[in-house]
Design a protein that fits this description.
Elements: E1 2-9, E2 19-26, E3 33-38, E4 45-53, E5 57-64, E6 75-85, E7 88-94, E8 103-117, E9 121-122, E10 128-136, E11 148-152, E12 159-165, E13 170-171, E14 174-191, E15 202-203, E16 245-249, H1 257-266, E17 272-275, E18 278-282, E19 286-287, E20 296-298, E21 309-313, E22 318-321, E23 334-336, E24 347-349, E25 362-366, H2 385-388, E26 397-405, E27 409-412, E28 427-430, E29 441-442, E30 445-453, E31 457-466, E32 468-469, E33 472-481, E34 483-490, E35 496-498, E36 501-505, E37 514-519, E38 526-528, E39 531-533, E40 537-542, E41 549-551, E42 554-556, E43 568-571, E44 579-581, E45 584-585, E46 589-591, E47 598-599, E48 602-604, E49 607-608, E50 622-624, E51 628-629, E52 632-634, E53 637-638, E54 646-650, E55 662-666, E56 668-669, E57 672-673, H3 675-679, E58 682-684, E59 687-688, H4 740-747
Parallel strand pairs: 16-17, 17-20, 18-21, 19-22, 20-30, 21-30, 22-31, 29-32, 30-33, 31-34, 33-35, 33-36, 34-37, 35-38, 36-39, 37-40, 38-41, 39-42, 40-43, 41-44, 42-45, 43-46, 44-48, 45-49, 46-50, 47-51, 48-52, 49-53, 50-55, 52-58, 53-59, 54-55
Antiparallel strand pairs: 1-6, 2-5, 2-7, 3-6, 4-5, 7-15, 8-14, 9-13, 10-12, 10-14, 11-12, 23-28, 24-27, 25-26, 25-28, 26-27, 56-57
Length: about 750
């Protein structure tokens, strides 16, 4: 049933001065709430939401403090901007709530699982009423732990529940479901009024429980541990195919740098500087700072799509950048949040909205380190750029793009990844450039180039994207890079590095010989369909980067300097909420503690061998070091038949050595160990070669894994290849050529 207006009446007369709470749920993702009103003329405010699950579940919670009452039964009307599917309106009334400033904190989350959870918030008042509510696709089986069900709707199967708490702390609302399905769960903490014996009294009383039918469903990682990657990573709308050629260049026989540089700087927006086949000599950096938005540097390719434009570098790199200024990362260029963020929301409330916050610009959302989760410094010292600039240790962060502003808030394009808390001085800061006078580099691309270096330098990033928004690197081949990083993004938003091949490095010491890396608060970036060979670290996420995806890449023959070096590495303080999906890796997945902690990383449907014959150092499939919390290892195929002989080693087990051949190594580091890194890792539906099966402890019984956590369906670049690429229930079918990068490596051309 769809309705554009819904009216619900209180069952008895109300009491002036009380608090009204209205939970609005509906089963689609398109309708929006236009208004919430009642017949007594009370003014309703939004407490949390609207939260929207793409599968078609939405919810928001409104409140009216210090209500007036006429004595007759009050009726609440919710109006939508279009017909909403199956609206479920729940109305409650509470006494003894602060009449002036009732909301202490609010939080919400979405997900698709058998348990709904709002996520945790930190209360600041000594005595709070916690009101939780959900809207679900299936049906609940009861209230959450410690909560009382006040309204339990039928046939919708949604709940409104509450709990009164008498101490500040971390609280969340949850409610179990009869079976897995999509859901939104939110909780609002209301301050009790400052008088004795004023525990809030609910109206109405608890309702009886319905009995839904059980069924199987799709397994879902709890939403508190993940973010919505789908629709929020990579170049928005996909990489455009620029068709207007501004100029076409050919090799000169001497230095070609100036000709290419001048062409780029003269090129109009959204046009192409084309390079004919041949060898171009480059003796300094190609700088994008004064280039128009949308400009593409494009080489030529043969019939198999292999680049035939070769750039030979005796010095320098490609430096796609805006106007980075580290002074923009100071406290003076920041503004405090006025309320904790809501994970999954797009709204950030600020103490003020200064003129330098403008739509279209990039900003850093961060907070001072929460010592219960974030550890700055690890086996070696480290600091976030914000700490270097005197703003305090702020390892956990997100790059956000503002789409609109109001007098006290901003709306950002992508949902917020975490609950950034005012208790830890959460702030919005200029995104590494002066947002009042400059812009990020927007929608520029590098395509179809072969690049090699005749010099060595461990600090060179061969292709560097800095302060970029929606830029890309596509179909480049890097051979024998100078020694630092092949492709680097830092302070970037929704950039894309894809379809490329990075092979070998001039140098391999610490911090050298990396493939593709995201540093310094990159968010929403997509690293997809690349080949990475003979590198110290193939794929890395670093220093506050969050909400990125590394999908369907092929890594082989990692180069060890003192131990097995990883195919995938979460590194530095404090990457979080990144997804590693569908990759084929010879070397291990590593969440290290070298420069500090990380959290909420997800490894999904990968084939990880964890071994290569040319390496004599430690060879495990998955290593999660201490202070890497809330990580998810789901649906993978792990290990090498006839090589690995231990399911897992958990710190501080002293039998762990450099020659240990284990599927999992959990909780160790060179400076200690951490039980929490072991206890809170989620392992589900992973096949391993030691057991030769999915262990019972990891079974998801009759539930099915989703095909992808970021793609809506089989991507076009797979063509005729199987989808999904890897299935833990069919380990023998997990072939290298199941992913396009592996197919390209074996056959020399993309799949047809």
């Amino acid at each position: 049933m769809s309705q554009s207006t819904v009216t619900v009446q209180y069952t008895a007369g109300q009491t002036a001065g009380n608090l009204n709470v209205v939970v609005v749920g509906w089963n689609d993702s398109s309708a929006q709430i236009s208004s919430v009103t009642d017949t007594d003329g009370n003014a309703y405010q939004l407490a949390v939401g609207p939260a929207v699950l793409a599968e078609g579940v939405s919810q928001a919670i409104y409140f009216a403090p210090n209500i007036s009452a006429t004595g007759s039964a009050n009726a609440v009307t919710v109006a939508f901007d279009s017909e909403a599917a199956y609206p479920d309106i729940r109305i409650l009334e509470y006494s003894a709530i602060d009449p002036v400033n009732p909301v202490d904190a609010a939080i919400g989350a979405t997900g698709n699982s058998a348990t709904t959870s709002s996520g945790a918030l930190m209360t600041t008042a000594a005595r709070d009423l916690l009101v939780g509510a959900n809207t679900v696709q299936t049906a609940i089986t009861g209230p959450g732990n410690g909560f009382t069900a006040r309204l339990w709707t039928s046939p919708d199967g949604d709940i409104a529940e509450d709990q009164f708490v008498t101490a500040t702390g971390s609280y969340s609302a949850d409610a179990p479901l009869w079976n897995a399905g999509g859901w939104v769960m939110q909780m609002v903490a209301f301050r009790a009024a400052g008088q004795a014996n004023s525990n809030p009294t609910p109206n109405p009383a608890p309702a009886p429980n319905p009995t839904p039918n059980s069924s199987s469903g799709t397994y879902t990682i709890p939403s508190t541990r993940t973010v919505t990657w789908q629709g929020n990573v990579g170049v928005k709308g996909g990489i455009p195919n620029r068709t207007t050629i501004y100029t076409t260049l050919s090799p000169s026989g001497g230095s070609d740098l100036s000709a290419i540089q001048n062409a780029l700087q003269s090129c109009p927006a959204n046009q192409v500087v084309m390079l004919n086949p041949g060898t171009y000599n480059m003796d300094s950096s190609l700088d994008w700072q004064n280039v128009n938005d949308g400009v593409v540097l494009r080489g030529s390719v043969d019939g198999n799509g292999v680049p035939t434009t070769q750039l030979i570098w005796s010095d320098g790199c490609i430096y796609m950048r805006s106007y980075f200024n580290e002074n923009m990362l100071t406290e003076d260029n920041s503004v405090n949040l006025s309320a904790d963020t809501v994970k999954g929301s797009n709204t950030i409330y600020l103490a003020s909205v200064p003129s330098w916050i403008q739509p279209g610009q990039l900003y850093i959302l961060d907070q001072l380190d929460d010592p219960s989760l974030v550890v700055n410094n690890g086996e070696e010292s480290a600091a976030s750029y914000r700490e270097i600039m005197g703003a305090g240790a702020r390892g956990m962060a997100q790059m956000v793009k503002v789409v609109s502003t109001s007098s006290n808030s901003i709306t950002v394009e992508a949902p917020i990844n975490y609950v950034f808390q005012t208790a830890f001085t959460a702030q919005i800061t200029k995104g590494g450039y002066d947002t009042a006078s400059n812009n990020p580099r927007r929608n520029c691309g590098v395509e179809n180039l072969y690049m090699t270096a005749s010099y060595s330098d461990g600090n060179t990033r061969f292709i560097r994207l800095e302060n970029c928004d929606g830029c890309w690197v596509k179909n480049v081949q890097l051979y024998n890079q100078p020694g630092g990083i092949g492709i680097l993004g830092d302070f970037c938003y929704r950039c894309e590095m894809r379809d490329s091949y990075i092979n070998a490095s001039q140098l391999y010491d610490g911090g050298e010989g990396y493939g593709i890396a995201l540093y310094d608060v990159c968010s929403g970036c997509l690293i997809e369909n690349n080949i990475l060979e003979h590198l110290h670290v193939a794929l890395q996420v670093n220093y506050g980067s969050s909400g990125n995806v590394y999908g369907y890449n092929y890594e082989k023959s990692g180069y060890p300097d003192a131990q097995q070096d990883p195919a995938i590495d979460s590194h530095g303080t404090h990457p979080m909420m990144n997804l590693f999906e569908g990759n084929y890796c010879e070397d291990k997945v590593l969440f290290d503690f070298i420069h500090g902690s990380g959290s909420h990383e997800t490894v999904f449907r990968n084939r990880v061998m964890g071994w290569q014959p040319t390496n004599g150092y430690d060879q495990e499939a998955v290593e999660i070091c201490e202070y890497n919390r809330h990580c998810n290892i789901v649906g993978n195929i792990l290990g090498t038949v006839g090589v690995h002989n231990i399911y897992n080693l958990i710190a501080p087990d002293p039998s762990y050595t450099g020659s240990t051949l284990a599927i999992y190594v959990l909780g160790y580091s060179n400076v200690g160990y951490d039980d929490a890194a072991t206890c809170d890792v989620l392992r589900a539906d992973n096949y391993n070669t030691v057991n030769g099966a999915i262990p019972a402890s990891e079974s998801i019984s009759n539930q099915a894994l989703p095909n992808s956590l970021y793609l809506t369906g089989k991507p076009a670049f797979f063509n005729s290849l199987p989808w999904p690429a890897f299935d833990p229930n069919n380990p023998s079918g997990a072939l290298l050529t199941n992913i396009p990068a592996g197919y390209r490596y074996v056959n020399g051309h993309p799949p047809q």
